[in-house]
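haha ok so turns out i had the wrong file open the whole time. this is the CORRECT one, sorry everyone. sequence first:
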Amino acid sequence: MTFNATPRETDGAGWHPLRSGAPSVTVRGNAPPCSPGVGAMRNSTVLPSPFSEGCLGFRAPAAIFARYLSHTPLAHALFRGAECRSLAALEIRRPALDLGCSTGEFAAWALDEPIELGVDLSHGRLRQARGAGGHVSLAQADAAALPLTDETFASVIAVSVCEHLLQPRAALAEAFRVLRPGGRFVATVVLAELHEHLFWPKVCRRLRMPWLARWYVALHDRVFGHVALHGREEWEKMLQAAGFRLVVSRKILSPRLTRWFDFWLITAWPYKLVQWLGVQTFVWRPKWLRRLCWRCFQSIDEECGNQGSVLLVVAEKTGCGEW
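then structure:
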């Protein structure tokens, strides 16, 4: 099976090829060669996929948590571990597009086989994703103007991506366009309610320093690049406006887990500093501490009803096709 990609108009941010090394995809027209696992999409690109049927397979929850714990701060491992546990319970059909794949950690650490295609706007993050090995092909592209033909994928997955998009409505419209009839958009989206569940702002308010709480929340959004924080109802309206039919819409990441996530964020600053310096990171934790962290995660990763900080959504592109 092949995926056809063609250029599309962009708003300036656009998409650009990654170059260097021998090509790993068949490129038609005058497109330059691309690096291993990275599709250079210009004029027309054909992306072969040996994993085009069936569903995405997830590793065991303990294995996923251990991977994150070995490479990222505890706060990040708690957050991603909860997201992956919820995603693993879903049926996500192939071929799949990893929208906003970043450094490729989700595909490499949570899935048991590479995902067909990952796209991200950052050239540097894509180079890291290539090293992670979680994608068959990678391409630099704007989520609001994907260089892909219509009705290409059975699934589009976006893990904590939509809240970072300057044009979320345009990105949802593009996800709808590249999905086949009956295909599904599967996403986790950080909600505006996150602010209510953060640990340190609560402490500041109890100490009668609301100004410090507001400052912390603003800093938190700036550090994490949250530019599109909305409530559940607003995201549902945007999905429906894009043409989707909602299949699943529920909150995950309980207030308790969110508080622990925020509490441990203070330990992430050394890791962040090393990241900014461009150094490959590895977090060493003794075996007994890893086991303790896993037990703590199991105790706080609870069902959250209507109080979660993240929205888990599955939205279907209605049409004549069968899911």
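The CA atoms of residues 289 and 295 lie 10 Å apart.
again sry for the mixup
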